[in-house]
């Protein structure tokens, strides 16, 4: 068994700063969270940014400044979201790669997202994938539902392996409209992944813990963070991303699969 790759998804595009004051939305808040989360055991940061009013933005200038600041203050692998918010257009989502991150998310299909739709049609997916290959940005394949796994096979079949040559997936479970966040579903999804692929999993909201325990037991890796859950325990809001990483790192240690360092994670994900 390898160590555990821990990704922190620190902000997301959905939570409202006014209702979740601990959410990191400024560059200073994000870098401070990043430093703390690296110390706590994270190796990758999945990044969404906000504008001066704390609204989600894909502004490329801000994204570039964010990548530079995270590189200056941490050793974390910087994975920019190409999912953005459900309101973001495809061109803006492709332009995220202009910020030259180490890695990016790449969602493999459309999914209902609560009352909204997170749109990822095939044409967009293939354009984004080819752009990651041209720019040498390592994608993480985000899988919200089983049909997304079928699209991952199609992508690999038509366009070959990603930059770096290794396939790493992230099962995003428990989104209202996506696959449920429970252990039987996790096991079925993992069985369906391409040979040689590695995977992380995250459970949204109250599915966080069952998905985390299932992933550790099945040899997978973990994504945690305030993008995915803002409640640490029933009735107790999360005070910061650091405590979510600490909990994941503690459980990974108990499973005798302690957190990977950022350097180990780079080797594991084939990110130079
Ligand atoms: N905010 C969601 C609509 C990603 O980062 O790639 C999409 C999302 C996925 O968060
Ligand atoms: Zn995201």
Protein described:
With 272 residues, the chain is of the alpha/beta class. It is 38% helix and 20% strand. The protein has helices at 27-40, 60-73, 90-95, 122-135, 146-159, 183-191, 208-217, 241-254, 262-269; strands at 6-9, 44-47, 49-50, 56-57, 77-80, 103-107, 111-113, 116-118, 138-143, 168-173, 198-203, 221-224, 231-233, 236-237. The strands form 4 sheets. An 8-stranded parallel barrel has the order 1-2-5-6-9-10-11-12, surrounded by 8 helices. Strands 3-4 form a two-stranded antiparallel sheet. Strand 13 (231-233) and strand 14 form a beta hairpin. It is globular. The two termini are 23 Å apart. Residues 9, 12, 46, 48, 81, 83, 105, 227 line the site of zinc ion (ZN).
How would you describe this structure in keywords?
eight-stranded parallel β-barrel, binds zinc ion, 272 residues, two-stranded antiparallel sheet, binds (5S)-5-amino-3-OXO-hexanoic acid, alpha/beta, 20% strand, globular
Explain the layout of strands and helices.
Blueprint: E1 6-9, H1 27-40, E2 44-47, E3 49-50, E4 56-57, H2 60-73, E5 77-80, H3 90-95, E6 103-107, E7 111-113, E8 116-118, H4 122-135, E9 138-143, H5 146-159, E10 168-173, H6 183-191, E11 198-203, H7 208-217, E12 221-224, E13 231-233, E14 236-237, H8 241-254, H9 262-269
Parallel strand pairs: 1-2, 1-12, 2-5, 5-6, 6-9, 9-10, 10-11, 11-12
Antiparallel strand pairs: 3-4, 7-8, 13-14
(5S)-5-amino-3-OXO-hexanoic acid binds next to strand 6.
